[in-house]
Amino acid sequence: MPDYLVRGIDEKLAVRIKDYARDRQVTLNDGVLELISAGLDSRAAHVALSGGPRAAERATDVHTIGGSWNSDEASAFADALRALEGLPR
Question: Given pLDDT bands bounded at 50, 70 and 90, which one contains residue 80?
Fold first, then answer.
């Protein structure tokens, strides 16, 4: 399993990620993995929405299974994604 080093996480984002992990009662690493996975699932659902009616049904199913985030969680995740965008591909 590969490891990634994420650089340039500002203090505000770091606190939000730590808060997320603490609130979920998971390790910081597991919290970050949850956020990344949820973001990728959310992106896949968004892409599926543009793929026709059947894709929209699948996206809705994913949303139902995954639940929803409150505004703090959604904002923390958006900040995490912005930080990840700077990683080399």
Answer: confident
